[in-house]
Amino acid sequence: MTDTVEQIIAVDAHETDVLDPRTDAPAGKEPVTMAPVDLGPIHVPTPVVLSPMAGVTNWPFRVLCEEYGPDGLYVAEMITARALVARNPKALRLCRFAPSERIRSLQLYGVNPAIVEQAARIVVDEDMADHVDLNFGCPVPKVTRRGGGSALPWKTDLFREIIQRVVKVCSAANIPVTAKIRVGIDHSHETFMEAGHIAQEEGCAAVTLHARTTAEYYGGHSDWSRIGELVGALDIPVFGNGDIWGADDALEMVRETGCAGVAIGRGCQGRPWLFADIRNAFAGSDERVNPTLGAVCDVIMRHARLLVEFYDGDERMAVHDLRKHIAWYLKGFPVGGTTRRAFMECENLADVERETSRLDPAITFPERVKDKPRGRVRFAKKVHLPYGWLDSRVTTHEERETLFGDDPMDAGY
């Protein structure tokens, strides 16, 4: 194929690098209640979603979150459509679900409508999932420079065709389809309102809006008012996403926007018990989970054992996967750099157990990181797009030829 020539656009003046998390519940406001949401045949009693996160939301982490949380949706990390069609072993591993998972939610990503349709057909024919989400929200350059993720809704013909094809395949099996979107590429190239209407017209059961642009990446604070705008414009449920670091943030998002549900991303990294806090908050309870370091170590070990099962008994792969989670689990605890480095050098379960046993189990969860931002907080940045991407809202024949060619990166992990 012809390599895609890249275009880079600068961040516009609206982008912000001011981090202003909402962590305190406003006084004197009415209690928030959440009504159940039905996505086709799927009844979601408490519409709280674990957002798919690459390298994070495989089934061991989903199981931990679901054990703490309400009967919501716990979505598998993004599956590349071409990789699934190519039967890539990692893609197939990521499609696995634990027997305890009540609803099997799987997210697909792709740019070529025919390939995404093929992937959806595999999901249906092989009974891989009960719910399919489509990724139009990823801001990562290696995705957007191919016209994918949050860049794709700019091309309304491509966006519509992908949804049409997937909904047609999935509706035959009574599998609901939803879409994850962002506000736009930047504030001069917003797409969320048109994308929401197209998703609704083409049969999506719901839309999740991450209230940032691609250019804003994960920096600053998401603009929840855009979620409220979409709620007012659509008839299908809208889930809000962005900067829910604690249960009070979830309550406030619903108050501010009227969204049908909330989607939790980085806020639960190293804190699967956040879902228990949110469950309690929506039930009107002030009870929150404040684990000691000993309790956190118990979660680390359970996570480690589940990962060993996920990797078919390979402890080394499991523990290497666990390392990033350990950094999140220990965030804010006074454990020292030497201890953190020792965890990063672990190679098997015995190593992890040895290091956890050295920690003081009585240390309480640090107040200074409670309900505060988690994961990488990256600020506004340049956006990488296929050359000429912004020239038109529809794809040209030449653009499709370039985009849909064989891309080895798209078939592997």
Structural class: alpha/beta
Tell me the distance between the termini.
20 Å
Strand order of the largest sheet: 5-4-12-11-10-9-8-7-6
Total number of helices: 16
Provide the CATH top-level class of the largest domain. Alpha Beta
Number of domains: 2
Radius of gyration (Å): 21 Å
What about the largest sheet?
A: 9 strands, parallel
Beta-strand proportion? 5-15%
Describe the protein's architecture and organization:
The chain is an alpha/beta fold and 413 residues long. Helix content is 38%, strand content 14%. Helix 1 links the parallel strand 4 and strand 5 (73-74). The longest helix is centred in the C-terminal third of the chain and has 18 residues, at 293-310. It starts with 5 loop residues before the first strand and ends with a helix. Mean pLDDT is 91; it is low at 15-21.
Q: How would you concisely characterize the structure shown here?
A:
This protein is of the alpha/beta class and about 425 residues long.
